[in-house]
Specification:
The structure is a single chain. The chain is of the alpha+beta class and 724 residues long. It contains 25 helices and 18 strands. The strands form three sheets. Strands 10, 11, 12, 13, 14, 15, 16, 17 and 18 form a nine-stranded antiparallel beta sheet that branches. Strands 1, 2, 3, 6, 7, 8 and 9 form a seven-stranded mixed beta sheet that branches. The protein has a two-stranded antiparallel ribbon with strand order 4-5. Helix 13 (368-395) packs across helix 17, helix 17 (486-512) packs across helix 21 (572-581) and helix 22 runs parallel beside helix 24 (678-704). The chain is globular and about 100 Å long. The protein binds adenosine-5'-diphosphate and magnesium ion (MG). The site of magnesium ion (MG) has 3 residues, from loops.
Amino acid sequence: MSGNKSRVQAIYEITNRKPMTVNSPQSLDKIWACDVFNIAKMEDALSKNAFKAVKKTVQTGTPLDKATADIVAAAMKEWAISKGVKFFSHIFYPMTNVTAEKHDGFIITNSDGRAITEFTGSLLIKGEPDGSSFPNGSIRMTNAARGYTAWDPTSPAYIMHTDNGATLMIPSVFMSWTGEALDKKIPLLRSNDAMNKAAQKVLSLMGETKIAPLNSSCGAEQEYFLVDANFANARPDLLLAGRTLFGAAPAKGQEFDDHYFGAIPERVQVFMQDFEDKLYRLGIPAKTHHNEVAPGQFEIAPYFEAANVASDHQQLLMALLKSTAKAHGFLCLLHEKPFAGINGSGKHVNWSVGNSTQGNLLDPGSTPHDNLNFLLFCGAVIRGVHQFGPLLRAAIASSGNDHRLCANEAPPAILSVYLGDQLEKVFMDIKEGNLTKSQEGGVMDLGLSQILNFKRDPGDRNRTSPFAFTGNRFEFRAVGSAQSVSGPLITMNTMLADSLEWIAAKLGAELDKGVDQAEAVINVLKELINEHGNVVFGGDGYSSDWHLMAIEERGLKNIPTTADALPVLRDESVKALFKNTGVLSPVELESRYEVYSEQYILSIEVEAKLVIDIAKTKIYPAAINYFSNLAEACSKMTEMNVEPDNSITKTIADEATAMISAVKKLSEAMKKHDFSSTDEHMQYCANDIRGLMDEVRSHADALEVEVADEQWPLAKYHEMLFIK
Ligand code: ADP
Ligand code: MG
């Protein structure tokens, strides 16, 4: 079937699409976490002592002894088998954004040939998936070619169902045999530890006596597009690159804003309900869903959880979005910019830190003492973003996100912090010395009545900021929709750890001098905001004025592409940050630079090859066919003494020829291999290759609006974006 025929056929079929019938939804209490071996199920299945040991491990991460591990493994196996499970798999998160699994049967055969099931503590705790084909930077070269997985008991095991059966999934870390992190989970756990240690110091100095371990929390809002599978299947760019590499702007885009929070199409609603039932079974607290700004774009936001669990759940959520969409006849696009000229997709990572004794430290609180704790932690975040803005930019660098950041609908590639008017004023008052006087000798008021009744005002939210305070948490909005949340969480926890260490040292010194506690806090914050207040910005982050001001007056960095951002991972200050906090050794950090830059280069090269292929084998033939039709018609007109209008024929000839010559240039450019460094190679991809891809596209898109509609081989924007 030729391309254009399949497109027309797709349109025909789609008009008759019906929502898929799904099993009638079950009540939430029936399905909630029914496929998760969580604390409650362990309590039911284990002896008192075994449960006590495992609970301690879950809550504090202390290793499990072998005997208890055997008991837990046996209980886990029994529970899983009772639910029809035959396989188990350690699931882990390599340095790419993917999720990796290796499945094993519970089955072994004994000496008399009978099959029995086996699952011991050591199988639970440690697996050896090898996985030697995962990119791991140079770590594998210098060590042995094996990677190990180890159960992360802080993230519960769960069952995944497919048509062919069920598998017990065991969330795991992935490391080299010498213990280097090869994944995104180990540094996340370490960053949490580093943050906890530093936070304990600050809270002790603040006179807190009972301080439970601190944990970071994350609630991630996920944006995505749905495209009918019929269209997607006829577009190799969507299937292989996750975004359209060609496509003229539609007559109706998002200008009317009628999609945002509008009625959800029925097919999509059925999909969402089915998807959310799956999330509930896995104990993922899906909370809100709605239409997003662009047509065909939607959002799902689960309730926040401990960062480590939230991060595992986020990976699972992305995988389930894709598989469920497929079952409903959609392709789910997680790409940051699937359609040029239409709003892209991000992932807002809501982040806070707290514990069971002091609560959420990013909540302003309602007593002067809580206010002080809050101001210290909030100040620590401000310092972190200022000190490590370029690192935060590197943590969200990907070829997809390059298209979205700075695109005047998404946060700019300049990292600044939005505090809201009220809180910004408090910090500016501290800076200007307006909060130093103790009032009437009593408890220092600090003028903090300003924030005592701090309310989150939805109207007060600055959507143009990449990093915003939203009442009791920070929201990192520049994260890409396809990215793992681990990288941003690791970076935020680590920069916070560094800032809290800095604060602890300064605060300790002030208190040693005999300065009163509240005054000591204000002194430290004054120094902090003097040095780092430049990163606080409440204005329009999209405006060109800000771009100028940020760089020229504030000394902030604008880092437009991944090629510019990733080299930051090699900065001495960044190496020192990760080394001193114990989050990543220099070798581990370097391996990350290597893996991420390789991924970047590869994804641009794949796109470039697709551009060449689609232009040559789909677009050019369509253009030339139509040109022949027109040319023939024109010559018939001439035979009949009608003067033909050759302008369209000529435009098509010109654009098709120009496109093919751009394709040739791109093919030539792809042959270059002699780069003196990876940085140079990345820059070449970001600028030369992408520039030439755009050149090919501009001619192709010009052809799209000239060639007869029924002869055009690729589904058009207006067809894909409006779901029926
Ligand atoms: P909005 O679209 O207004 O930003 P949503 O309700 O869609 O808000 O998403 C907000 C996200 O922030 C949710 O995942 C929510 O659970 C999460 N969140 C709320 N409070 C906290 C907190 N203290 N720490 C981390 N995440 C939080
Ligand atoms: Mg949000």
